[in-house]
Amino acid sequence: LHFDVKTRAVITKDSRYVVVSLEDKTELQEVGEMRRNFVANVSHELRTPLTALLGFIETLMGPAANDSAARTRFLTIMDTEAKRMNRIVGDLLSLSRVEADRRVRPRSLVNVDSILRSVIQTLHPLAAARHVNLRLEGMEEDSEVLGDQDQLTQVFTNLVENAIKYGPENGEVSICITAHSNEPTLRGPAVRIDIADQGEGIAAHHIPRLTERFYRVDSHRSREMGGTGLGLAIVKHILNRHRGRLRIESHAGNGSCFSVILPYN
Ligand code: ADP
Question: Where would I find the Histidine kinase domain in this sequence (predicted)?
């Protein structure tokens, strides 16, 4: 806890006393620290690919200037690193956009079922590359909620993409959509979308931290799969804006289920 302590002597006609006031600065300090950590994390995340790029540029301008085989190899790596920086910057922009408009609640009616169908179509090539079967189950009607079409598309893209990336090759990802007249988490009518994979699962102590920016269970695996560590932070902010929830159920060795719960309006 951080307090600012102020004392003041008060002298009146009849008495003298001292006023001591305590101002709780804990939250301000925490926000300041979070901001500093965030800037440090962003710098670190961007510096890694940038250092690689600078190293390869130097080599291509010097010792490897006339080596065409090395040039092709280095340019391929540089392309991967530049794309990685591009993804990080893109995700940071998405995050700051959703943080900026979190107070305004979306007002258009959107159809969750059709959003899921288009997400499945978009991710089909990624799933096919890993021989993963994407299965959509559940309702086709009554899946309209008040929401932002682009933001909800981003939520489901991030979650289904994770399920494909962190699930096994030749596995299955099931996406199940159900209506609840009284969803216990929201204590009211809601639509729930469960995205379940057959991956290695996540140990319990990681689960509460997964939506923190840049938090990864296995950094190497995340980077290898092209992850930025920002996907679930974006999901959380978008769902907050929709008064929705993200529930994560997972057991190490037993796959994971990420559930999105959105209120009916
Ligand atoms: P990333 O870009 O690294 O995938 P996310 O914010 O989307 O970042 O996810 C954070 C971390 O949560 C991932 O690095 C991964 O360790 C873990 N994770 C997310 N989804 C899954 C999943 N379906 N199965 C196992 N681990 C997951």
Answer: 41-265
Q: What is the ipTM of this complex?
A: 0.99
* 64: DSSP letter: T
Centre of ligand 1 from the C-alpha of residue 208, in Å: 12
41-52 pLDDT tens trace = 999 999 999 999
The CB density around residue 172, as the number of other CB atoms within 10 Å, is 16
Query: What is the position in ligand 1's atom list of the atom closest to the CA of 211?
Result: 6
What residue has token string 């926000």?
31
> What one-character DSSP code corresponds to residue 65?
T
Query: Can you give the pTM of this predicted structure?
Result: 0.86
- 121 CA → ligand 1 middle, Å: 21
Is residue 143 a contact partner of residue 191, using CB atoms and an 8 Å limit? yes
Tokens standing for residue 106: 């979306």
Helix axis angle for 68-100 and 231-241, nearest 10°, is 20
The Cα–Cα gap between 114 and 132 comes to: 21
DSSP 212: S
Q: What's the 7 CA to ligand 1 centre distance in angstroms?
A: 50
Per DSSP, the chain holds a count of helices (H) and strands (E) of: 6, 9
**Sign, Cα dihedral of 210, 214, 217, 221:** positive
Q: How far apart are CA 234 and CA 99, in angstroms?
A: 9
